[in-house]
Amino acid sequence: MTKRFTHLHVHTEYSLLDGASKIPELVAYAKELGMDSLAITDHGAMYGAVEFYQECTKAGIKPIIGCEVYLAKGSHLEKNNRGMYHLILLAENDTGYHNLMKIVSIGQLEGFYYKPRVDKDVLRTYHEGVICLSACVAGEVPQMILQDNLEGARRCIQEYIDIFGKENYFLEIQDHDLDEEHKVSAELKQLAQEFGLGLVATNDLHYVQQKDAAAQDILLCIQTTSTVDEPDRMRFNNDSYYLKSYDEMEALFGDCPEALSNTNKIADRCNVKMEFGHLLLPEFPVPEGFDAVSYLRHLCEEALPKRYEVVDEKVRKRLDFELDIINTMGYACYFLIVWDFINYCRSHDIPVGPGRGSAAGSIVAYLLRITNIEPLRYHLLFERFLNPERVSMPDIDTDFCYVKRNQVLDYVVRRYGQERVAQIITFGTLQARAAVRDVGKALGMSYGEVDEIAKLIPRELGITLEKALNGSKDFRQAYDSRPEVKKLIDLAQSVEGLPRNAGTHAAGVIIAPHNMKNYVPLQQGSEGGVITQYDKNKVEELGLLKMDFLGLRTLTVIGDCIRFIRETTGEEVDIDDIQLADEATCAMLRRGETACVFQLESAGITKLVMDLAPESFEDLIPLVALYRPGPLGTGMAEDFIAGRHGQRTAKVLHPLMEPILKDTYGVILYQEQVMQITSALAGFTLGQADILRRAMGKKKAKELDSMRQSFIDGAKKLHDIPEELSDQIFSLLQHFAGYGFNKSHSVAYALVAYETAYLKAHWRPQFYAAFLNSIIGDADKVSWYINVCRNDNVKILPPDVNESGHNFTVHQNASIRFGLAGIKNTGDAAVDAIISARNEGGPFKSLTDFCCRVNMRVVNKRVIENMIKCGAMDSFGARRSQLLS
């Protein structure tokens, strides 16, 4: 007999703070044990389903997609403490997978009460294609047995048979050396014979190998905020909850061979096929007489004379080229969807950014006002954004005023229907420092002791405990010399990287062609609204349309500043039509007056601005690309500045590279330049050049070796460039590709920087007031920037209960009045109550009058004392000490 067994009850790292099985390690160990199939059945959610499917497929193991759901005792809609049961559901086929997603979504969206619960009515509705196992001792049938209610167990079994069918319902037996399991298994064997049902043996797997039990125990402590030494805390009875081999399972269930073989019969029946790379774009509702392709062209043609004074052949050729690629690749609806909500923003006074990322390289995006950057003028490449060789979906990321971002989301929901729109989940993971702190707490170590160790871990992006041990002498010394620290770090390493909690992604939004439940499982977001259970990478791989709606504080500042200018001077400022070579703006930057200017505030970049000495907006474009560790550390920034001032130009290896590197003085600064050089010298299409650029950036050795030869051959054939020189050029490109920056992104962010600088140069009080409002909740920042205003000769008037608004306001004499919301420990409700009382009865005449008229339940003693102390009641004519008394 072939030694074959399939684990069908498996908890991965996505049984949050309960499962310690990292999916790649779990699948690799199953492969090592010779297993050809494996299930995933996390608690109440399907977070790991796509990753698990992909890892299993890569390893040549059949993935079985399932979930251990929570079954309510009664209706899942009732919020009561009657408790719940466990139940294992496995998707037999694609219908079962889609039904499983719906069951899990209903549990999360409708039945959530401490846990995501479903009921038998839900199971009846979505039973098709689903195989059910009776679960561990927490299942309904086992619980009836443990209560010696065999008639109740029989009733339940019959009910499950009626829901799923006899061939789709199995009685599950386990053995983790629990008395309850032994009692349940004995009865289940009898009941299986009585009802003619299959038995199935499972191990309630929560970690990969037996040695991982301690890590999983720590996770339980973190979840329940308890310490390992607490006697009555939640814990597993032993270390047997791991991925056991066939021999280990046979040793436990040798007396019941059918329970072992049934695992494979179930596995053979389960054949879910996930599809990746197919576009699942929603249809855009176009006017009658158009389809998406013709309507997109219509909008572009309509915009041409508005965007270009002269529509020359270059513009026309670029437009036709882009539309051809967009339509061939099936992205017409995508552009229309983005155009639609951007158009909504522009017509509803919601500030929108000029563009972000590679989308700024598209003339179609420019014509539709998705971006505000003319790509031909700045030599931006459409192929950096979209090309036929690119397999991943393009990204049109959009910046909105962060205060009004939700208005855009609400519009999208209204436009496409609530059932088709969701935000994206994100997982908070146990990173190096957090892992040490959480594990230390679970071990019962003192806060001070743990804090001391955690602070030895360098504050670096992507730091791991392994890197910290190799890179920090003090951290290594503590690990090597103190046994308790070694234990702490070893345990922290075993849980490092595991997901700790689920939240809502800051920007990601999905719009589906039909009901979202048909494509992904859903749940409630941490900040309200519906979110996907698959993260941003997985939803994209499934072909769903992901948009990034990014809230950018600077756009709120720009919008508020323009409003202040209108209110105080009567002038109308169109930020899209400002002078891009304004001397006052550039002179201010050359003096290093960069406080509050987007992206240019830090001491390092301020020095770079002054060294660069900008004379127009275009001079700011390289700054975003230059001010990064790579260019600064390799001397690229110095070479660029020297070239800018005519002192020297970096050596160019071939004349064909000169026009491409002219604007950057011989320095390869942008990713687009890598693409252009590859195309000019070796005849690569810009699409192929983009693939090469990506391979260089990610250091994909195999791809690069074949592409290097193609580059050498192409350069020889086209321009008779010697192999030695072309190899040297390729190496140079490879070196700079690691540092190269997306020029489209540089232009977009440089424009936002220039816009803030322009407003500051011409309307300082209005600009500073708008900026202060954007940070009003941070007392330390407010204090810092008030000093910036004073140093800039902008007068800040103190808060006043009769003069101040909620936020900072600009007075006609070009001074700024402090906002009441900026006073510590005041709160929005108290400020609203004060302003409401003032609006109703006029200015407050005295402290007594104030106290009589405001709502004292909201404006309490502490609020009033803080207002007196900061001078907000000085206008009453009494001393602050008198008012306090």
Element layout with pairings:
Elements: H1 23-32, E1 37-43, H2 49-59, E2 62-72, E3 84-91, H3 94-109, E4 112-113, E5 115-118, H4 120-125, E6 130-133, H5 140-146, H6 150-164, E7 169-173, H7 179-195, E8 198-201, H8 213-224, H9 246-253, H10 257-269, H11 292-307, H12 313-328, H13 332-347, H14 363-367, E9 397-401, H15 405-416, E10 421-429, H16 432-442, H17 447-454, H18 465-471, H19 473-481, H20 483-495, E11 499-511, E12 522-524, E13 530-532, H21 536-541, E14 545-552, H22 553-569, H23 583-590, H24 603-612, H25 621-626, H26 629-633, H27 636-644, H28 658-661, H29 671-682, H30 686-697, H31 701-719, H32 723-737, H33 743-762, H34 764-774, H35 779-791, E15 796-797, E16 809-810, E17 816-817, H36 828-841, H37 847-853, H38 861-869, H39 880-884
Parallel strand pairs: 1-2, 2-5, 6-7, 7-8, 9-14, 15-17
Antiparallel strand pairs: 2-3, 3-6, 4-5, 10-11, 11-14, 12-13, 16-17
Helix pairs in contact: 1-2, 5-6, 5-7, 8-16, 8-20, 11-13, 16-17, 16-20, 18-19, 19-20, 22-33, 22-34, 23-33, 29-30, 30-32, 31-32, 33-34
